[in-house]
Amino acid sequence: VGAAMDGAEAIDRILQTQARFDLVILDLNMPRLGGFEVLKVLRERWPRLPVLISSGNLHSAAVAELERLGQRHVLG
Predict the structure, then answer these.
(1) Apex 74 CA angle, 73 and 76, nearest 5
(2) From CA 66, how far away is CA 48, in angstroms rounded?
(3) Which residues contact 59 (CB under 8 A, 6 or more apart)?
(4) Are 35 and 55 in contact (CB under 8 A)?
(5) In this predicted structure, what is the pLDDT of residue 29?
(6) Which of 2, 7, 8, 57 could form a disulfide with 30 if both were Cys (CB 3.0 to 4.6 A apart)?
(7) Which pLDDT score is estimated for 18?
């Protein structure tokens, strides 16, 4: 289990770690680099990596964007 303080740190940790991640739990509202940007990087590099979005502020446009990025698992 690992944690990151913001989206940029999350991407750095994933890129620098040799361990394989089984799941990423991602908030959409993070400092420095938001959840949408992190999700885009994850989908480009590891398209099959399971990602669970957890956010307290999901509006229909955000859900539509997540679906466009291939995201199926969201906790609102």
Answers:
(1) 165
(2) 15
(3) none
(4) yes
(5) 84
(6) 7
(7) 64
